[in-house]
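Priority: medium. Attachment 1 of 2:
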């Protein structure tokens, strides 16, 4: 079915440059069942469930002269083996080799002549493990009309759920003249949208981002201030580094209970501590007033018996909502508990006046939703000028029970959020089955020491835990 991109979808589509590919990703580590995880099995599973994410068989067609926003059309030449690819690291592959491979994959923009997603089944890991890395363009995943594909692939049981067979028949691709006629009709009916579309095609995103900026207009007073100077903000290259951190969720819960804050407050405090010591390792001058301004584009309140919200509760009615705020991480404060107090106070102040951005269909399908949530978070952050914050942090809770992909148990899931213009680092994290998984996407040239930050995240959590006893 042919449908026109929304103004938001188009803004993310045009926002992409060769240095800032706008795809979100996820790296799943799998423990194979007897017989292993085979590429053909993953390919079959994806093919069976594409009907639940129909946009993953659609590509983008731009309208001549930029007269209107691009359209989604069925890809009549859709080739699933192009999108689901087989890869490997030399046996026995190390985690570092896997992360180097992921860094190369997230550096490459997606092919705009095809549906905007790719999946890699990575074999050869030590311990007979397998990895599945997926990347989807931010314009593709809106949590309303289109979910991230990982949300429909994972099951609660080792035996995959049955899916009705589907005979997919792509629609005829519209001609250039038909697209032009449709665009001209829209220009007559809604001339303002036509002007906005042409400005976007020319590279001016101001008009198409109006809706997003208005949705987060409550931050206008804070956003009016420029972000502090930081080595986190620099011209970035086309190459990336990728690093991960795995941590037990229990220490975060204990700190939350000790101080009556939220798990999200503890997460931000741990990140603040790690950034503090990273800056010191670079010889950066710090005072007690030094801050790193973070855009936290997602505060997800999940009401699902299997998950835990960012406030540490487990409500019971299925629902998902997205919220966002700017928070100054007090990296100059030497006391970990005081850092937590500052961040918790900022969260409480925001909670009193927040205006949630609804994503009502976010969890309308059962499955593993964090990647969809991260995608919505990136959308919210992209509505801000990157001059008003130093760092983007997305945090999406996941289920606290095991999940399976084609019978293989999911051991861990590391999210990947894109780098925005002049931002050398983005941090994404997901909780799952009693653990928290951090994915750090960094510019290869501007942040060659990203692996220092991974060890400092562990040290920062240990420091806060010790101070909380």
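Attachment 2 of 2:
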């Amino acid at each position: 079915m042919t449908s026109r991109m929304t103004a938001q979808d188009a803004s993310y589509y045009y926002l992409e440059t060769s240095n800032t590919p706008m795809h979100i990703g996820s790296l799943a580590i799998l423990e194979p069942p007897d017989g292993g995880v085979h590429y053909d099995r993953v390919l079959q599973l994806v093919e069976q469930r594409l009907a639940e994410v129909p946009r993953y068989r659609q590509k983008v067609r731009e309208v001549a002269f930029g007269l209107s926003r691009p359209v989604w059309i069925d890809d009549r030449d859709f080739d699933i083996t192009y999108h689901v690819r087989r890869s490997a690291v030399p046996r026995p592959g190390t985690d570092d080799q896997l992360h180097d491979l992921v860094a190369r994959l997230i550096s490459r923009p997606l092919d705009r002549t095809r549906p905007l997603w790719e999946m890699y089944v990575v074999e050869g890991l030590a311990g007979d493990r397998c990895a599945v890395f997926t990347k989807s363009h931010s314009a593709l995943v809106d949590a309303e009309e289109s979910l991230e594909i990982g949300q429909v692939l994972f099951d609660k049981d080792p035996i995959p759920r049955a899916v009705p067979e589907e005979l997919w028949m792509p629609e005829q691709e519209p001609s250039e003249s038909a697209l032009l006629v449709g665009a001209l009709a829209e220009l007559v009916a809604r001339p303002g949208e036509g002007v906005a579309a042409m400005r976007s095609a020319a590279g001016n995103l101001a008009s198409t981002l109006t809706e997003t900026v208005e949705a987060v207009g409550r931050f206008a007073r804070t956003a009016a201030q420029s972000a502090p100077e930081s080595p986190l903000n620099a011209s970035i290259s086309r190459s990336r580094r990728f690093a991960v951190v795995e941590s037990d969720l229990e220490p975060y819960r204990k700190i939350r209970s000790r101080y009556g804050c939220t798990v999200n407050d503890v997460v931000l405090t741990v990140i603040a501590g790690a950034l503090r010591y990273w800056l010191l390792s670079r010889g950066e001058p710090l005072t007690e007033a030094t801050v790193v301004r973070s855009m936290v584009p997602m505060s997800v309140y999940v009401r699902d018996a299997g998950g835990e919200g960012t406030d540490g509760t487990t409500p019971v009615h299925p629902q998902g909502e997205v919220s966002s705020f700017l928070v100054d991480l007090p990296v100059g404060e030497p006391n970990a508990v005081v850092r937590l107090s500052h961040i918790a106070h900022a969260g409480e102040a925001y909670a009193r006046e927040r205006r949630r951005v609804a994503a009502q269909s976010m969890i309308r399908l059962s499955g593993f939703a964090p990647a969809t949530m991260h995608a919505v978070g990136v959308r919210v952050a992209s509505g801000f000028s990157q001059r008003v914050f130093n760092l983007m942090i997305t945090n999406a809770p996941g289920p606290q029970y095991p999940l399976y992909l084609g019978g293989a148990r999911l051991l861990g899931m590391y999210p990947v959020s894109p780098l925005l213009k002049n931002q050398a680092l983005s941090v994404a994290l997901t909780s799952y089955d009693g653990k928290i998984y951090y994915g750090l996407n960094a510019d290869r040239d501007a942040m060659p020491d990203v692996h220092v930050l991974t060890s400092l995240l562990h040290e920062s959590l240990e420091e806060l835990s010790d101070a909380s006893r």
